[in-house]
Design goal:
The chain is of the alpha+beta class and 267 residues long. Strands 3, 4, 5, 6, 7 and 8 form a six-stranded antiparallel sheet that branches. The protein starts with a helix and ends in a 5-residue tail after the last strand. About 16% of the residues have low confidence.
């Protein structure tokens, strides 16, 4: 069994939506200053013959305040997309059984699982200050409500969710030491299990059918004392050698590729 499709190349895209919203909020609040008066630069109206300058300025200021208030709330389309992704993660968790599925959630849903169980991860996702302000001022908002529901589902499945023993089937002290060096927070980690999945190299070929590299997959199961949740991390690594020509390969290098939540062993 190969894990290359799962381990070599997972993609997280949710941060893009935050960037899009942040740009939209900036555009909605673009202003120009004339003397001591700020007038909306995108929706500045000329006064009618019956309006005085003061009345026009007053109306412009009122429109600006309305647009600023609306910009403090995430747009409806944003919430719909995000909540839909969170609900999909919950469906995956609820339908998980060890007999029918290898993974609790897909790689696309894994970040939502972390944000569901970790308040710190939620704050880090909501980098735009307006989003966090809106969350704090909007009790029962759709974003946090969906994540709370996912957290409840996770609490039923995660404690008993254990990595396959075959992930640690083979040992290599030098490679395992290199793997540990790639972790960002080794001081707060308690290493529980470590090892390699394959005994031999898997050769990856290019479109022309020639070797591009060869690799093995490796794992570390660890508990991080700095986490604000009670689950463990399964760190996935790729041990790789690039093809050097003439049937030879270059130096071995290791990179961290995945970080998934699992239950912690009880023994």
């Amino acid at each position: 069994m190969q894990l290359s499709k799962n381990i070599k190349g997972s993609i997280v895209k949710s941060g893009l939506l935050v960037a899009v919203w942040a740009f939209a909020a900036f555009a909605a609040n673009a202003q120009i200053r004339i003397g001591e008066i700020e007038i909306n630069a995108l929706k500045c109206r000329k006064s009618t013959p019956d309006e005085s300058l003061a009345e026009n300025v007053q109306r412009a200021e009122s429109e600006t305040k309305t647009e600023e208030a609306n910009a403090d709330e995430p747009p409806e389309w944003w919430l719909k997309v995000i909540v839909g992704d969170i609900e999909q993660a919950k469906v995956e968790v609820d339908s998980y059984t060890p007999a029918t599925k290898m993974y609790l959630v897909s790689s696309a849903s894994a970040p939502w699982l972390l944000r569901a169980v970790s308040a710190k991860a939620r704050e880090e996702f909501a980098l735009d200050k307006k989003l966090n302000d809106w969350r704090k001022a909007s009790a029962g908002n759709a974003f946090d409500t969906a994540l709370d529901a996912l957290a409840e589902s996770a609490a039923k499945k995660l404690p008993g969710y254990a990595p396959n023993a075959n992930f640690f089937a083979h040992r290599d002290a030098a490679l395992e030491l290199s793997m540990k060096s790639k972790l960002k927070n080794p001081a707060s980690l308690k290493i529980l299990r470590t090892g390699l999945f394959q005994a031999n190299w898997i050769i990856e070929k290019n479109d022309g059918g020639l070797p591009a590299n060869r690799y093995r997959e490796a794992f570390i199961l660890a508990k991080d004392s700095s986490d604000d949740h009670n689950y463990c991390h399964l760190y996935g690594f790729v041990v790789q050698q690039d093809y050097a020509g003439g049937g030879t390969y270059g130096a071995t290098y290791v990179y961290l590729n995945t970080d998934a939540l699992f239950g912690c062993p009880t023994k």
